Amino acid sequence: MKNIIIVSLSLLLLLLTGCSRLVEMRTLATEPEPVVVNRDVKVRPGNSQQSESESGEETTEAAAGVIPPEPERIPVQVKGIYVSAYVAGESKMMDDLLAEIDKTEVNALVIDLKDDLGRVVCKMDSPQVKELEAVKVYISDMEGLLKKLKAHNVYTIARIPAFRDSWIGEQRPEWCVQNADGSVFRDRDQNAWINPYKQEAWDYLIEIAVEAKRLGFDEVQFDYVRFCTEKGMQYVVFNEADVQKRSRTTIICEFMAYAYDKLRAEGLFVSADVFGAIIGSGVNAESVGQVYGELARHLDYISPMIYPSHYAEGNYGIDYPDMHPYETITAALAASRKELYYAGLESEHIAVVRPWLQDFTATWLPHHISYTGVQVREQIQATYDAGYDEWLLWDASCKYEWDGLLTPAAAAKETGQIKESRAALPEPSYEPETTAPAATAPVVTAPAVTAPVVSAPIMTAPATSAADGNR
To answer: Is the pTM higher than 0.90?
Structure first.
């Protein structure tokens, strides 16, 4: 009782003297010195220290009325692969996968937490997930799986397809993109799409992402953070009460900023997949809703999907991009570096670039080559030569070309060599431009254009669905 009285009198004394110590604590808690984890990303350090009252007793920052700092986030330089919920839920398949991972430089897995049809793949405590009956269990013990992966020193990323969601089309049609007659719009694969202007749907996605942290994931990665781009979209209608004069690029950016602030506060890293075609040009930017440099301001990692097979003939001056993986990746990432250079002139924070690379063969293309370990390694080398250090491999079937990957020891040696070679190079710079590339006056075109374009990359429309390996 005596201690309580002393603490109360001490706090009263602080108030009467202008609360200088309290103000100083608040300033330190809300604006700590940023820790630069690499050239592109800054993370605020965690701070678990408690303040001491004049009586010598400790009071937490929360009790003192101080805004708590963000949790500490320790970055990992990712070299990862995608794993579907089905594969992740089969113990034998995962054991075989881990056996290969242990022998290679791969240190991260991107695992479906919400699948391409909108189903949450494991049991979850989220109120909205329960209300919408969204769970379809593929992974019976997600927490156990993540602990097992941690034992193998694997960094874990929860993949969450955001706005393409057939299940929500059934459960919450009012959240979805709709045709003029009020029916739910569906793409060529009969998938519904959440209307990004429906902000009530945002918190549903955030709830799933927060659960990822509880389950043990290190990062959440949003896929399909965009509008559908198929021809049928010309017939859909958007309510002005939802739109409020905001463009597609504006609302996608608003969602990403909202999600980033919420999830960073939870201690999660946040990443997102974007179309490769939006880099360095306005092509598709408005129809997709993605502006590369703008989104990079609201993410820890940005992952452009720059699969060579998805570029049209003639892009970047390359006759058949799929047949020239090194040249295609080099050109795409050179454009990435330039656009983010300009974006960085107006922002203290720019995401680390972690591209998706191709580990599948595009048999639907008339001019294609088989992708073996050679082609996989060429793309990885192109990533390094473009000045980037992280990458992800995509194959929907999860059958990877392991011979294209290095052993952990060889990869460590390569990392040292890369660091030494880059130290001798000057930082890239570009001539001033009147407008930043791709950020203004985007050209609205459908992504399925097949005519050769050199100055502005066009993504081809794959003949198969995303489930077959193409996003």
So the answer is: no
